[in-house]
Amino acid sequence: MERIYAAEVVTATEGVVLSRWSGSAVKRVDAPVELLDIFPTLCEMSDLPIPSRVQGRSLVPLMEGPVARGTHDGSISAFKRTESVGRPMIGVQLPVPLAWGYSYRTSRYRFIRWAVPKRFKASTTFVDLFDLETDPGETRNIASLPSSAALVVTLKADAPRSSVRCMLS
């Protein structure tokens, strides 16, 4: 059975080490970043201009010192399920043989909207919400809890304006 889902274990990118100066101490930055950020970071580190069409943001400010927040409020990932499989954590079957999962991860939460292709705005979608602070293994979907209703609305609104935003709204 295929087990593709948008959990932290799947979307995290570990081991990217960028250092502007040889011999500088390695620093772990706990902020949402995307792989799109690596190219503009390398450009800035090499004193090259960052092309205007590049979507990422340089990580140099995060590397050079304390900043109030990261370059992004959250990061986005997209996943495709190629067969009708249950949602791994709660055993619910997907309504059709193919679905896309769009994940928006902030420093504390992962919000996932699962959608059926060509019907992204239809009622054939459902959401997952995980509190990574209290549930780092993403085993308890809190999206349907009454106490999470306002948070789901907020995370939908906070999703970055990108081609994926329409899928998360």
From TrEMBL:
Record keyword Hydrolase present: yes
Molecular functions per Gene Ontology: metal ion binding; sulfuric ester hydrolase activity
GO cellular component: cytoplasm
Keywords: Hydrolase, Metal-binding
Stored InterPro entries: Alkaline_phosphatase_core_sf
Record bears the keyword Zinc-finger: no
Protein name per UniProt: Sulfatase N-terminal domain-containing protein
Organism of this sequence: Emiliania huxleyi (strain CCMP1516)
